Amino acid sequence: MKKILVSTALLAGVLSYAGGFRVSLQGVKQLAMAHTSAHAEDASVTFFNPAGMSFIPTKLSVVAGGFGASNKVTFQNLNTLQSTETDNPLGTPFYAAITYKPIEKLSVGLSVTTPFGSTVQWPETWEGKEMVQKLELKSFYFQPMVSVKLAPWLSFGASYIYARGVVDWDKAVTQFGGQVNIKDKKASGHGYGFGFYFRPDPKLDVSIAYRSAVDIKAKNGTASFQFPSQSIYSQLKLNSAGQDGFSGTLPLVEEYTIGLTYKVTPKWQVSADFNYHGWERYSKLVLDFDNAPIGNQADPTVLVSPKNFRNSKTFRLGTQYAFTNIIYGRLGAYYDESPYTNENFIPETPSFNTYVITGGVGFKLKQFGVDIAGGYAMPQYRDVNNANLGFYGQAKAKAFYFGLGVSYNPF
Q1: What is d(CA 130, CA 1) in angstroms, rounded to the nearest whole number?
Q2: Which of 7, 8, 204, 317 is buried most, with the most CB atoms less than 10 Å from its CB?
């Protein structure tokens, strides 16, 4: 089998306008505070840093939550003034986690999340139809983990990552007046994460974490072609159903995070994070079909498209205030860099430098907690100038999301 290489970064199941495919929706409480990470109050800390489990104040903690994410992208050709808007479905990422302390200094846990992904749907006949009509990328991370408390103020944690991925991509093949769907729903890969969590003072939490790159391998992918005449099938060496196979690898990038939370007063705390994403792994997209000669290389089954992503950063600032022992108010804001320049803008994963404002409310009822959060994204418009694709114009976007989470710390 030949290879399909779709080097990206981190995926999940909804939108992400700035950090490539990275979806900052892994904790409702965290989202309300700009998706900051240094919060060891319940099992939601596990995705951000497994070492934080050691500082959860109960032996058992269970959390779960989900989000709705709405986004629209508009592209305008400045020569024809024709404007095209996506019709993206509502994204629904989710998370769930459980932690337990069998002994005082040892914690174990399991986290299930959707940290990377993108779904974009353009009209079938739009001017960029040869690049994308619809593209859905998803990843599901299953992370068993362990944390050891090395000192009253310090812990170390590590996790193993098993990832499952989905690729479902429609694009036009105008040379033959048809369309191709590229799909694999059983891609998988492996990775790891580790981190340190510090509490040198009761007022200060510091989280330092690393999550590795994950290579999602598609071993049994299918490319399904549709043409006006079946006679084209034999020209392209397809089977009688118009299909060809492919295999490949989808690299998801690594992420470095430094976060801190400071309790200004017993009721008021401030949090900040810095994230660094290794996006330059997504240097090109290579589709290598088993038989179909629709490529652009010496081997006619190989289709190569440069992507030229670059590493990117995110800056986050959030706060929480306890109005009572039951009700908590939260606010936040963050800035997320796009991982590519205007000259490398691609409509299948539209990305923008983005400012995001977040907020939410939390309720604590003894062992139970309920959190509500929302975010409004303000992507900055882009002057698209991709000479390699012959794709020029102006792109803009708008997005908002909301989430509901629950937690249970029984003992």
Answers
A1: 25
A2: 8
